[in-house]
Structures are given as C-alpha cells and as structure tokens.
Automatic annotation (TrEMBL):
Protein's name according to its UniProt entry: 3D-(3,5/4)-trihydroxycyclohexane-1,2-dione acylhydrolase (Decyclizing)
Signal peptide: none
GO BP term (any one): L-valine biosynthetic process
PANTHER family, A to Z: 3D-(3,5_4)-TRIHYDROXYCYCLOHEXANE-1,2-DIONE HYDROLASE, THIAMINE PYROPHOSPHATE ENZYMES
Species for this entry: Roseicyclus marinus
Domain Thiamine pyrophosphate enzyme central: 223-356
UniProt KW Transferase keyword: yes
Domain Thiamine pyrophosphate enzyme TPP-binding: 439-575
Bias (Basic and acidic residues) ranges: 604-616
Length: 623
C-alpha cells in the first residue's frame, strides 16, 4: 500500500531510532540490520528523550551499558572492523564530559577509516536556561561548545536544530559511514530540547531500505597505465593493506600474485590478508615488519600498493624503498591513491585487482626475483621460530605470542594496540586464517585492547559464537582502561586477556634509550616521584570484576592457563611478567623518523642524533 502523503508524529529522538531500525544490508546472502545496536551511558543530556526512544526498540537495537564513553567508542570501532565496515554501532553520551570522553574514540575511528555513529547530548537550542549544567561558555560565541571539538575527528558532523533536519542528515551520515572512500565516524549533536520536539515525518522516510557498499570501477585508462608499468617491472612487489579485506578482495589479490609470481608484503592493518604458509606471503613490511619484506622492498622497482594509506610505519618514514622505485596506488580514496606521486588507480580493490590481472596476460615476474623473496621469507621464519621459543631466557612478548599462536583455533580473533605489542604481534604472529588479526595502529591508542576485544566479541558472537577473542595487553594499557573486563562478564561476552606486565611503558623506555637518553619516567622503577615501586596484583583486580584470573611464571605455565581459558565459559585474565629490556624482536625494523635533540649537554644524545640523521639519506622527498 502506498504511503505517499502519509505522516507520523514523532520526536526527533524517536525518528532517529525508527530510521536506524529500517536500514539493512546483505552480508553473505543474508539481509541484516546495518546498525547492530549501540553502547550508551545515560545522563541528563540524553536519557529523557533519546533514552525514551531507545527503550521500546531494545530487542532490535540492543543497548550495551558502557563503563566509560571512550571505551564504548573503542568497542564500536572494533565491532565495525570485525564486520569489515558493513555494520556499525552507535554510541550515545550525555552533554558535557560524557560526550568529551568520546573524542579519543572518534579520532581512532577517523584514523582507521571506521564507521561509528555518535548521538550526543548538547545544550538547549532555545538558550532559555543557559548556562546549564556542564556547559562551556564562550563569551564571544554562544554557539560554540564541547561538541564542536568533534569537527576535526568526524567525517560527518551536524547539529540538529529542528526535527525536520534528520530527514536530510540521517541519510547523509549513513552514506558517509558506508562510503569506501570517505568512511569514518559521524557525529550528531542533539540539543536536549530538540531531542523531544515533535514533527510530522513522512511515513515513507522510514520505509525499510537495503543498502549496498559502493564498488567504484577504476578508470580504464588508469588500469592500462598501471598494467603497463607493472609489466615493465623486473622486481615487482605488492603491498597489501587493510583495504584488501574491507573490499573482500583477498581472492583477487591471491589470484593476481599467483598468476604473475609477484611477492606480497602486508601492512599492519593488512595482516591476515594471506596465510603465513602462502608461498608468496613474504611477511609484514616496515618499522614493525620483517627482514624478508624489508629486504625485497629496498630492491623492488615497481610497487603496487593496494588499500593502504602508506603511513610511516609501513614506509619506514619513506626510507624502505629504492630511490627510483615507482608506485601504483590502488585505492578507493583518491587521497591515498596519489601519495608520493603514485600512479593512481582510484577504485574498488576487488574490481581493480581483477582488472589489472586481466590486463597483464602473459606477464611473469622473473623467477629469480620471486625465488629470492621466498628465500628471504624462509630466513625470517627461522628467526621467528627462535624468537618465540622459550627456555632458559627471560619471559618476552614474543614467547607469549608463540604460545597462543600454537594453541588457538585458526578462527580465533587476535586484538591488540599501542605500546610494544603491535610490533611484536605483527612480526611474530603466523596467520592461521584470513581476517583474524586486529592490530589497532592507525591511532596506536592505549586502552583499545580490552574495550576493542569486547566490541569484537559482540560481533564475533553474532557470526562465530564458538570461537574466541584473544586480547594481548600490556600493564600500561591495562591500567589506563580495564573496566570492560566487567562489561564482558556482565554481558557474557567471553574474552581471553593476556596481561603482559613489563613494569611500565617499556617500549617508550626502549625508544628513550635508543635516542641516547637514560631511563626516565617510563618504567615505574625509573620514576623519580615513586619512592617505593611495587607490583600491581592484576589477578586480584581482574577477579574483583568477575573474571577468572591466574598469574603464571613462564610460557609453559601460560600454555596450561590458556588451555583452561579456552575451555572456560567466561572471561579469563592471564598475567605474566615479561622482561622490559630483554626479549624484544631485534630484527625486521626499518628506520623510523623521530624528533631528536639537535643540542644537548649529553654526549650520547648528541651521538644518537647524528646517527639517526645520517640514516635520512634514503628518505624520499615526496617523489
């Protein structure tokens, strides 16, 4: 029956929830709601109206009660990453500090190009009660508030000043979150009075709609140019980024590499594009990479960069490549496709890789080049074998990674972020199945690990309930944000959390030492304001939040504890001390540009500055 001309009277908040309820997408042949629900902490800025609107739809749009707004945003980002940006969660926070707490999570979603919808309270549009609780007053601009801070970390930002506005705003926000080129967080500021104002909305606005993720076909001329350049290559290489997985292009990547014998290296976001055992997987590239990938990168003459934004850890601050290497940028985003004078192929990775393969009929990379790359990978595998082995030496991150890698299911999901663990997981983890590794390094954000694990587990429980989400977290990140251990227990979303305690911010201590400085204010033992350092009882802390917990002394005990955690039906936290100085992965690193002191009274600082600057000779200057 036609609904033309029909209206329904709803508040602004009710219209938002009704619209979200009726937006669908088809994933693997099954139609499902795009919005998987939300994370919320209610306050005066969102509970009277948005809370009222969410209550009747709680079965269709489940609302997970958060412990911290920032961690809610992290959980939502991890949920979207698990679903390859095809589904998202919203976060709702009250006006003032509740919303301000979401700022870091918005930045993380923006850097990682992840969909996240923020529905945040705002001051009254009428201004009749001003100044209100938690309002920031800008004397010369009464329109300016906390929510304006989100403009720089949102792909889409709007303040709803009239109920009718959502008719335009909601489709625009959703289109942004689903766009492969512009994907990122959308922020809607909801003044407390406007949330409850009513309007006669067209019934047709709420009609169920099934969306598709746009697949932009690349320009034929760009494909032809890229194919011609690749076919001229004597030493070709493919850099596979996270966009390969978001496009669902793993099969096309594999087919192109296999058909033409082209070695493939992976970015941090692109880990788990290929299995560790694939003969053309030469390893992770860059600062947190592998000797094998970096060895071929510095010799490659033509480099096809697929679905990567080529950040400095991938490029070694642009020192990882031969000075005359030519780049082809295959990316849905023009901004990324043209970086460093790359020959751009702007379009979907799946379509672009298939088109490139069809245009390269007859081309084969020189056999000795491919064989040399594979020999480098075998040497790297031998190094990783020795690096993860445990015996008569100090406990290390690498050993813990090796234990879990040997015992986990191939479809278990690995989550980590920030500190030393992203480098150690990237270098030492052997991919067991496609798309199973989430190393958050777009924003390298401490605190993502446990919260992101919770969000990933919510998503995983929808699709693979019999598998586990495994979180690697250091003591520093744990102390920063750990309350979603409680969230996981409350919601029965089991996590296995490995807390690897090295007594502080050990990786930054390592950087401090590597730039010629003495240890200062990173390890707890080296904090001058800490007269009597002591160990945190992480086991008891985790137990107080309802988790099972155990402290182990070595990797052998870790293996037994991990087996028990796999068999358990609720969150388990396993704690192991690791050495802050010994056991780091010492190979596989490229140069990385960090700011160093040009003038210092300390000779070692001056020497390190000179040493670091001398390595700059290989740095590409945008060409």
């Amino acid at each position: 029956m036609s609904t033309a001309g029909q209206t329904i009277r709803l508040t602004t908040a009710q219209a938002i929830t009704r619209y979200l309820l009726n937006q669908f997408i088809v994933i693997d042949g099954v139609e499902t709601r795009i919005c998987g629900g939300g994370f919320g902490i209610f306050g005066h800025g969102n509970v009277p109206c948005l809370g009222e609107a969410l209550y009747p739809v709680q079965d269709a749009l489940p609302l997970y009660r958060g412990q911290n707004e920032q961690s809610m945003g992290f959980a939502a980002a991890a949920y979207a990453k698990y679903h390859l940006r095809r589904r998202f969660m919203f976060c709702t926070a009250s006006a003032g500090p509740g919303t301000a707490n979401l700022l870091t999570a918005a930045a993380l979603a923006h850097a990682n190009r992840l969909p996240l919808l923020m529905l945040c309270g705002d001051t009254f549009l009428t201004r009749l009660p001003d100044p209100v609780l938690q309002q920031l007053e800008h004397f010369g601009n009464p329109t300016l508030g906390v929510n304006d801070a989100f403009r720089s970390v949102s792909r889409y930002w709007d303040r709803i000043t009239h109920p009718a506005q959502v008719i335009q705003t909601l489709p625009a926000a959703l289109a942004t979150m689903l766009d492969p080129a512009d994907c990122g967080p959308a922020f809607l500021a909801l003044p407390q009075d406007v949330q409850g104002w009513a309007y006669d909305y067209p019934v047709a606005f709420f009609a169920p709609r099934t969306h598709r993720i746009r697949r932009q076909a690349p320009d034929a001329a760009e494909i032809a140019d890229a194919a011609a350049l690749l076919q001229s290559a004597k030493r070709p290489m493919i850099i596979a980024g996270g966009g390969v997985q978001y496009s669902g292009a793993v099969a096309e990547l594999t087919a192109l590499a296999e058909a033409h014998g082209i070695p493939v290296v992976e970015t941090i976001a692109g880990r788990a594009n290929l299995l560790a055992t694939h003969p053309l997987n030469i390893g992770p590239i860059g600062v947190t990479g592998s000797d094998s990938a970096n060895a071929i990168a510095e010799r490659a003459d033509v480099i096809l960069a697929v679905g990567t934004r080529l950040q400095d850890f991938t490029t070694g601050s642009w020192t990882a490549f031969a000075p005359d290497a030519r780049f082809i940028g295959l990316n849905a985003a023009r901004h990324d496709a043209i970086k460093h004078l790359s020959l751009p192929v702007v379009g979907d990775a799946k379509l672009g890789l298939a088109a490139l393969g069809a245009a390269m009929t007859g081309y084969q990379a020189p056999a000795d080049w491919t064989a040399n790359a594979q020999a480098e990978r075998r040497k790297w595998d031998a190094y990783v074998d020795s690096n993860v082995a445990h015996g008569n030496r100090p406990n290390s991150y690498a050993q813990a990674i090796g234990v879990v890698n040997a015992l986990c299911d191939k479809r278990d999901r690995i989550v980590t972020a920030a500190g030393g663990l992203p480098a150690e997981v990237t270098a030492n983890w052997r991919t067991l199945d496609i798309g199973t590794v989430d190393v958050e390094f777009g924003f390298s954000c401490m605190g993502y690990e446990i919260a992101g694990g919770w969000g990933a587990r919510i998503a995983q429980a929808e699709a693979e309930p019999d598998k586990d989400t495994i979180v690697f977290v250091g003591d520093g990140s744990y102390l920063l944000m750990n309350s979603d251990i409680y969230s996981s227990v409350l919601t029965k979303k089991k996590l296995i959390i490995l807390v690897l305690d090295n007594g502080g911010f050990a990786v930054i201590n390592k950087l401090q030492n590597n730039t010629g400085q003495d240890s200062f204010n990173n390890l707890i033992a080296d904090c001058p304001t800490v007269p009597e350092p002591f160990l945190v009882d992480f086991e008891s802390h985790a137990r107080s939040m309802g988790a099972d917990a155990v402290t182990v002394a070595n990797p052998a005990e870790l293996a037994e504890a991990f087996k028990s955690a796999k068999a358990a039906d609720k969150t388990t936290v396993i704690v192991m001390q690791v050495d802050p100085y010994e056991g780091w992965t010492t190979q596989g690193h490229t140069w990385w540009e960090v700011g160093t002191a040009q003038v210092s009274d300390t000779a070692s600082v001056r020497d390190k500055h000179a040493e670091i600057e001398a390595s700059r000779a290989r740095q590409r200057r945008g060409v």
